[in-house]
Specification:
- The chain is an alpha/beta fold.
- The protein has a single domain, classed as Aldolase class I (TIM Barrel, Alpha-Beta Barrel), CATH 3.20.20.70.
- Helix 5 packs parallel to helix 6.
Amino acid sequence: MLRCAITCGEGWTAVGQARRWASAGVEFVQLREKQLDAEELGRLAGAVATVVRKIRAGRDHEPLGGTRLLLNGPAELAARAGLDGVHLTARENEATPAEIRRRFALLGAPPPLVGVSCHTLEQVRRADDGGADLILFGPVFEKRVAGVVVASGAGLGLLHAACTAAAATPVLALGGVTWTNAARCLEAGAAGVAGIRLFDEDQVA
């Protein structure tokens, strides 16, 4: 089962999070710190990359060679900071995976991994056709804040359809996923799970 842990609004706490997740062998870490300006985000990305590279050096036996870092942000910033790739949003004006790879190449960086967030089957097909390496599909389950439903879930049926539409591109279930319902996501065809609060310390050791 592939796992993608997502930081969100924690700033420099992300360095400690990434260290713990990489030590636990989590396959992907998405750095999602939209509150930071480009300069601060670049410093943070570089610090996270340094920490993860040290841990990854001893995990070459793993299928992916250890944790891979994706930035929810500019490709140029990710390439200069030494991250492994970029995670794109579902916005229609978003860059394409091909464009991200071109930008990395122009900077002399290795070919990047490109993840894409998708909420509809049309977006899944577009991401797959566009050459995405990873698709995060959701929200699968309803989202609650303080016991109040703030977003309805797409459901396991639509997750299954998304996995089918994605063909060979791995789809990770996102949104309301817990370790209790993760197995149901895998049964629906997901290659793994992703989350912001899913990877708490008591769950990833």
